[in-house]
Inverse folding.
């Protein structure tokens, strides 16, 4: 059976290059020196992206992004710690859920899905509750595409002597974060996002002094980043079966990342994709949910057409038949759909995707947008 390969305009899994997929055609022995070197090289390159080689460890972890988020909270927050969770979307809510499930004390601060958390909010909240030890923040909240002001918030947290945990799942690799400028204890991302690898592993950049104090914090054997790091530092190997093909694909994806020009080039390409998407959709009368000032060039939420003939499922299937996979909206109050700007796609792909959307809207006789 030949499976057609539509272009994924989704925030991960996303469209990868032929070269990255090709890198998965090798079976690696997990004990083999060459595989250990691959892992070491991967971690070194990942640390370089945040300029964190001296200050942070990179701890890779098997599983999807949420596994790494849960592992970071479980490892970095002591059992008697308290987390302030900043929420403006579904992934922020998930952070709070993780704290609840892990039995870590937490409080939440929630703003509307089109309203970034501000440094002033965080300052006020930290003044109001001295028992908070950690703050957890989503950098780009992928449920809408909103960007939270990470650097300003990080500095306020540092002034209060508190610790920051950043879920940078959908921004890492595309939006600049310098570990020497932005103070944090943990930053979490994954293989299948802006680095354009395939899904299957996450990684946590943990500040060296912070990680050194976390023995025994974790609720879980498999999710213990202290143990994972200690074992890897000693043996060069992953503690449990590594996602070998995912590691190899990410390594190859990083070669291409650097060939392209690293973070500035990736950022620029995604910015261009996002601009083409917004401009072309606007010509069809499709409005984005967020104002430009708080829109990250990662994923765009669009208001669905108001026409009663519009049904997301049919719209999705018809656009898919023309070669593009879109993403459902994640808002409860407003009917929306989302289109990703990330992955191995360029401006020509974005023009073609919106042309496919235009054809579908005509086919569905959707007039009122
Ligand atoms: C900001 C953010 N956090 C966490 C996750 C969860 O990752 P996963 O679905 O890989 O577990 C995602 C996934 O897109 C995300 O965008």
């Amino acid at each position: 059976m030949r499976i057609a390969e539509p272009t994924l305009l989704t925030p991960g899994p996303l469209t990868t290059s032929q070269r990255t997929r090709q890198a998965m055609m090798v079976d690696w022995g997990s004990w083999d020196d060459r595989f250990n070197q691959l892992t070491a090289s991967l971690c070194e390159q990942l640390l370089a992206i945040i300029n964190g080689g001296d200050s942070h460890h990179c701890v890779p972890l098997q599983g999807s992004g949420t596994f790494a988020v849960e592992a970071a909270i479980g490892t970095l927050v002591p059992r008697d710690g308290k987390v302030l969770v900043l929420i403006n979307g579904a992934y922020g809510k998930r952070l709070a859920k993780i704290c609840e499930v892990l039995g870590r004390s937490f409080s939440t601060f929630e703003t509307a899905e089109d309203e970034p958390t501000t440094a002033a909010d965080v300052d006020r909240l930290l003044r109001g509750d001295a028992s908070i030890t950690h703050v957890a923040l989503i950098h780009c909240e992928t449920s809408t595409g909103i960007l939270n002001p990470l650097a300003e918030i990080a500095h306020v947290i540092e002034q209060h002597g508190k610790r920051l945990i950043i879920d940078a799942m959908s921004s890492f690799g595309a939006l600049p974060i310098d570990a020497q400028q932005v103070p944090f204890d943990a930053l979490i991302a994954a293989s299948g996002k802006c680095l354009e690898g395939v899904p299957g592993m996450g990684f946590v950049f943990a500040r060296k002094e912070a990680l050194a104090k976390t023995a025994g914090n974790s609720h879980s054997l498999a999710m213990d980043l202290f143990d994972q790091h200690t074992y890897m530092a000693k043996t060069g190997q992953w503690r449990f079966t590594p996602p070998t093909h995912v590691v190899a694909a990410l390594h190859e994806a990083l070669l291409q990342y650097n060939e392209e020009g690293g973070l500035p080039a990736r950022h620029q390409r995604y910015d261009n994709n996002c601009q083409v998407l917004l401009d072309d959709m606007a010509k069809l009368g499709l409005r984005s949910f967020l104002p430009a000032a708080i829109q990250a060039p990662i994923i765009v939420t669009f208001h669905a057409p108001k026409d009663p003939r519009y049904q997301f499922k049919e719209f999705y299937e018809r656009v898919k038949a023309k070669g593009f996979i879109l993403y459902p909206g994640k808002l409860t109050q407003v009917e929306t759909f989302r289109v990703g700007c990330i992955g191995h796609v360029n401006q020509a792909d974005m023009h073609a995707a919106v042309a496919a959307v235009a054809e579908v809207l005509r086919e569905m006789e959707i007039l009122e947008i």
User: Anything to note?
Assistant: Residues 18 and 245 are 14 Å apart (CA to CA). The domain at 18-258 is CATH 3.40.640.10 (Aspartate Aminotransferase; domain 2). The mean pLDDT is 97. The chain is about 40% helix and 15% strand.
